[in-house]
Design a protein that fits this description.
By secondary structure, this protein is an alpha/beta fold. It has 9 helices and 8 strands. The structure holds zinc ion.
Length: 258
């Protein structure tokens, strides 16, 4: 079954029909979903979701957008929540220089990225990275941590080219592939998917964002993942069933490691 490694079902975009939508997942072939925390108030919401739904797991952490709001208390909370048996990763964490251009913001993001990677290491969990317009700094920090010993990770919504992909793949990390791979203008990502071994790819929605074609621009959900599997299958010259089976196995191997 399809494993959605990165979704945001705590988002208000799902307030009107969250229960009905989530109730339809299993019958539509969606086996497991990881809800990734973004904002600080997403931490509790993610825990509530994974306690309510047997197929739902959580990544706990705070997105670089909110790095300046992370206090020592928030870090302690992430650590405590990460000990929940359904917490499977620390995320989404990382660097975003697209929305944040100031040097001081970058410094804070880097500090908080490191602080959360420390938690991943100490709690023996994989990490889930968000990186936008911050290729070099993200790579340097991730490389340093992996060298020191980590429990694997996913570069979510991978948006860089083949050279950067190779670095992460050589570290044994996974690339998260979502709706963007179905876009006509996504040449760079299609090249990455062609280049990367299927054994190091995982599927993700990042819903409510990044709906695949033919729903580009609409609200996304895990139900659209067959379109992503189809696009990956065409690029790799295999069947969508194989893409679904292998990426599910990859996700389970990484995320159910503890
Ligand atoms: Zn996300």
């Amino acid at each position: 079954m399809i494993f959605d490694t990165h979704a945001h079902y705590d988002d208000e975009a799902f307030d009107a029909d969250r229960a009905t939508l989530l109730a339809s997942m299993q019958e539509n072939g969606i086996g497991c979903i990881v809800n990734a925390c973004a904002a600080i108030d997403g931490l509790e919401k993610t825990i509530a979701l994974m306690e309510k739904y047997p197929f739902m797991y959580g990544a706990v952490g705070v997105h670089p957008d909110d790095a300046d709001q992370i206090t020592p208390e928030v870090l302690e909370k992430i650590r405590q929540l990460s000990r929940n048996e359904k917490a499977v990763a620390i995320g989404e964490i990382g660097l975003d220089y697209y929305w944040h251009k100031e040097k001081e913001e970058h410094r804070i993001q880097q500090d908080m990225f490191r602080a959360q990677l420390d938690i991943a290491r100490e709690e023996k969990l994989p990490f889930m990275v968000h990186s936008r317009e911050a290729a070099e700094d993200t790579l340097n920090i991730v490389r340093e941590y992996v060298k020191g010993g980590m429990f694997g990770g996913i570069i979510h919504c991978f948006s860089y080219g083949r050279e950067i992909a190779r670095e992460y793949l050589n570290m044994g990390l996974y690339l998260g592939i979502g709706g963007v791979v179905t876009f006509k203008n996504a040449r760079k990502l299609k090249e990455v998917v062609e280049y990367a071994p299927l054994s190091q790819l995982v599927l993700e929605t990042d819903c409510p964002y990044l709906a695949p074609e033919p729903y580009r621009g609409k609200r996304n959900s895990s139900l659209n993942l067959p379109y992503v599997a189809q696009a990956v299958a065409e690029i790799k010259g295999v069947t969508p069933e194989e893409v679904i089976a292998v990426t599910e196995e990859n996700a389970k191997k990484l995320l159910f490691c503890r």
